[in-house]
Amino acid sequence: MGVPTTFPALTQRAWFLTGPTASGKSTVADSLAQQMDLEILSLDSMTVYRRMDLGTAKPSAAQQQQTPHHLLDQVDPDAEFSAAQYLEAAHAAVDKIAARGKLPLFVGGTPLYLKACLRGFDAGPPADWEFRKSIEAELHEHGVDALRKRLEQVDPLSAHQLHPNDTRRMIRALEVAKLTGQPISHRQVQFEAAHSADQANVYALHWPRNVLHQRIDTRVDQMFADGLVDEVTAIRRDFPSISRTAMQAVGYKEVFDLLDGKTDLRETIEQVKAHTRQLARRQETWLRSMSEVEFIELNEQRPFDEIAAEILEKSKTRPKPSS
């Protein structure tokens, strides 16, 4: 049996803790785990890769020992990993956790995975890599405006809804239209099935922009101090071909360029910081578009235990996860 193509929403079956990168999700999740009988499911499209630990800020061995974690280390870096594969594994994990009488808590910041879990998902057909390669070549030659105009001809609704620079999803929309003869905007109707925040347990950590940028810079500096270059060097040695999806992880492509002599270390670190800040802005834009999300305001004076206590207090008025 292959991977299913449609998945129902998990909104009423789990809790969700999200937010931009470096916002402290893992720390708050650890605090929640100390107070509740829960198990954590990664909501991150890059922690599914083995050996990609430092650059993805994967939970430490100590964190994983303290609280059961799921959906980490699913495949090697040379393997593609789709949203459908993630959702198949996520639904199976939720079933098992619920059967044990535990609370499933999704923790992470990949917006598509979050939206698919909250509203359901139609995965569509498998990737056509040759078609994608041809479209990427056209994108390189003619630019993003030409790509958007092409999408407007086959799926004007998607062209209107997608961010002007979201080339990955524009290519996917063209691919689905080609393979199915139907616009993806006509298929993914689940995404319109929104819920209100008071009918879900979906909490997003929110920092003032300048503080979040400081946290990102500190995290990136620590990643390099902890050996990110050595990690990427070992991955390249053992996996000569890195998958397209794995290469989307911020920090890895930049270090590959360093290893190829295209940049020096200082420039590489600054690139990773800049690209991580861009990622955080995209994540926050997605989160603001989701009605299910309740933002939890953070500042440097609030301890993470206090944040966890606030979430627990809010949860008392929300529906309890059902099996």
UniProtKB/TrEMBL annotation:
The enzyme's main class, written as a single word, is transferase
An example GO biological process term is: tRNA modification
Supply the Gene3D superfamilies for this chain.
Answer: 1.10.20.140, P-loop containing nucleotide triphosphate hydrolases (3.40.50.300)
Catalysed reactions, as listed in the record: adenosine(37) in tRNA + dimethylallyl diphosphate = N(6)-dimethylallyladenosine(37) in tRNA + diphosphate
How is the subunit organization of this protein annotated in UniProt?
Monomer.
Functional summary from the UniProt entry: Catalyzes the transfer of a dimethylallyl group onto the adenine at position 37 in tRNAs that read codons beginning with uridine, leading to the formation of N6-(dimethylallyl)adenosine (i(6)A).
Protein name, per record: tRNA dimethylallyltransferase
In which organism is this protein found? Rosistilla ulvae
